[in-house]
């Protein structure tokens, strides 16, 4: 009798306590990636059966929680549309409402991605007033650090209104708005996970540093920052790990200012991209913004080096880079023209990911150079209609075997740039816009600026 009573109390207790629960990334108003197999996960009582019924097909899917009270399941999503709901039924019921199916993008980095209209952007009041788009949805990941990977975070999905838009990533908002112009109002979901002042290393999982100790060694001299964590992995653990696996179309990224001075940022940045793709098990597109020209103090070339490292990262597949030197002042590390940045990022996605048009959306990018006696001939990708903004350029330099660079005379011929200098009889190297504050003078027919580069 006593054993039967204990068993009954055990069953009743588990029935009362075992509630299905979901990570906050799954909530009312969310956007799920269209035409995909999406993963949904959560918690329940061990061995509890959960029945999941999405309203877009009214099909029932079943999954059983494991001995650690975890469960996950993969279900298909249809083409864009909504609103839909999802019913989760076990010992209790959970229903998520007002769900849209569309395109989901992760927006991450430091303060220039975090920067909102309320912070101060160009034409902020007017842009806020117009921000009524119920099929654009926002999820803001709160600033938090952790020593170990977290399985959840606080937050919720909201519709885009003037009130929600003014405190969301401005770059992300303008990115979504431009996407919808070509995608014909396909719902867009944006997840904003940013922290001003952070280096790339804090956004990377611990496993990276075990494989690449050189990356960890590079952080040894990072000075404490009163505004953000500097120890590797801390923001990844709390602000990225809880959403790993949530199906996304891709990532847009704006970061690098805090890595000025790093001599291996190219490796660091490429490793970050690769590690995120590995975590998601998806080689999703990764589009990013090259840092703007700015007075970076005593290191006259540190900003140029990071810009070139970012250019070199384009060797990774499905990457794209926005150059902003023409829309950024040199005395403000937070340029206010976020609309152009968001539009340029979206144009990369529209051409390369969605293939809705074939417009020229990249500025000139260094391709190679040829040496012809005392001349260097530089060729570029995306060089159609190459021209100098002020009819001439004083931003090219060439060097010989002594590695001493001198200002070069630059002429454009057949969409190539021919460089000469009386001080360099046998040139072998070239560089362009190689100072922190250089605003590119070289453009193509799309009126997009060329990236900083060094040929070695």
Q: How are the SSEs placed, and which strands pair?
A:
Blueprint (H helix, E strand, L loop, with lengths): L1 H16 L13 E3 L3 E7 L5 E6 L6 E4 L5 E7 L4 E9 L3 E17 L1 H4 L2 H4 L3 H6 L3 E8 L16 E4 L1 H4 L4 H14 L4 E7 L11 H6 L1 H5 L16 H7 L9 E5 L10 H16 L5 E4 L12 H11 L6 E4 L15 H15 L12 E8 L2 E7 L5 E2 L7 E4 L5 E3 L1 E5 L2 E5 L8 E4 L9 E2 L9 E2 L2
Helix pairs in contact: 6-12, 10-11
Largest sheet, described in full? 11 strands, mixed
**For the CA atoms, what is the radius of gyration?**
25 Å
The count of β-strands is 23
Beta-strand residue percentage: 25-35%
Structural class of the helix and strand makeup?
A: alpha/beta
Please, what is the average pLDDT?
95
């Amino acid at each position: 009798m006593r054993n039967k009573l204990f068993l009954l109390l055990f069953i009743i207790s588990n029935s009362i306590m075992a509630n299905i629960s979901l990570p906050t990334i799954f909530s009312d108003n969310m956007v799920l990636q269209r035409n995909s197999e999406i993963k949904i996960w959560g918690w329940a009582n061990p061995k509890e059966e959960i029945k999941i019924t999405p309203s877009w097909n009214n099909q029932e899917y079943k999954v059983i929680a494991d001995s650690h009270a975890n469960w996950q399941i993969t279900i298909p999503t249809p083409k864009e549309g909504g609103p839909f709901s999802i019913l989760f039924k076990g010992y209790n019921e959970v229903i998520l409402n007002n769900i849209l199916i569309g395109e989901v993008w992760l927006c991450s980095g430091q303060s220039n991605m975090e920067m909102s209209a309320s912070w101060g952007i160009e034409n902020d009041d007017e842009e806020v007033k117009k921000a009524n788009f119920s099929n654009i949805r926002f999820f803001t990941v709160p600033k938090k650090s952790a020593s170990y990977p977290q399985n959840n975070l606080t937050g919720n999905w909201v519709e885009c209104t003037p009130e929600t838009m003014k405190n969301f990533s401005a770059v992300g908002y303008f990115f979504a708005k431009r996407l919808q112009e070509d995608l014909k109002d396909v719902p867009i979901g944006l997840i904003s996970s940013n922290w001003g002042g952070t280096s790339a290393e804090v956004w990377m999982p611990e496993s990276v540093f075990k494989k690449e100790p050189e990356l960890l060694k590079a952080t040894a001299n990072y000075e404490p920052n009163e505004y953000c964590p500097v120890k590797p992995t801390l923001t990844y653990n709390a602000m990225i790990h809880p959403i790993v696996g949530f199906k996304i179309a891709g990532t847009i990224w704006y970061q690098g200012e805090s890595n000025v001075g790093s001599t291996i940022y190219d490796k660091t940045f490429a490793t970050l991209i690769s590690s995120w793709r590995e975590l998601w098990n998806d080689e999703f597109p990764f589009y990013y913004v090259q840092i703007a020209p700015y007075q970076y103090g005593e290191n006259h070339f540190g900003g140029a080096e990071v810009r070139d490292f970012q250019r070199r990262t384009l060797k990774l597949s499905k990457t794209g880079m926005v150059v902003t030197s023409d829309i950024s002042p040199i005395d403000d590390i937070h340029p206010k023209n976020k609309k152009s940045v968001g539009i340029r990022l979206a144009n990369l996605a529209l051409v390369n990911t969605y293939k809705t048009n074939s417009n020229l959306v990249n500025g000139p990018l260094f391709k190679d150079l040829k040496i012809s006696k005392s001349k260097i001939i530089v060729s570029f990708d995306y060089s159609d209609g190459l021209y100098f903004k002020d009819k001439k350029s004083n931003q090219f330099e060439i060097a010989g075997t002594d590695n001493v660079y001198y200002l070069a005379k630059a002429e454009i011929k057949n969409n190539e740039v021919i460089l000469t200098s009386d001080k360099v009889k046998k040139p072998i190297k070239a560089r362009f816009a190689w100072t922190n504050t250089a605003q590119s003078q070289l453009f193509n027919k799309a009126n997009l600026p060329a990236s900083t580069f060094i040929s070695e």
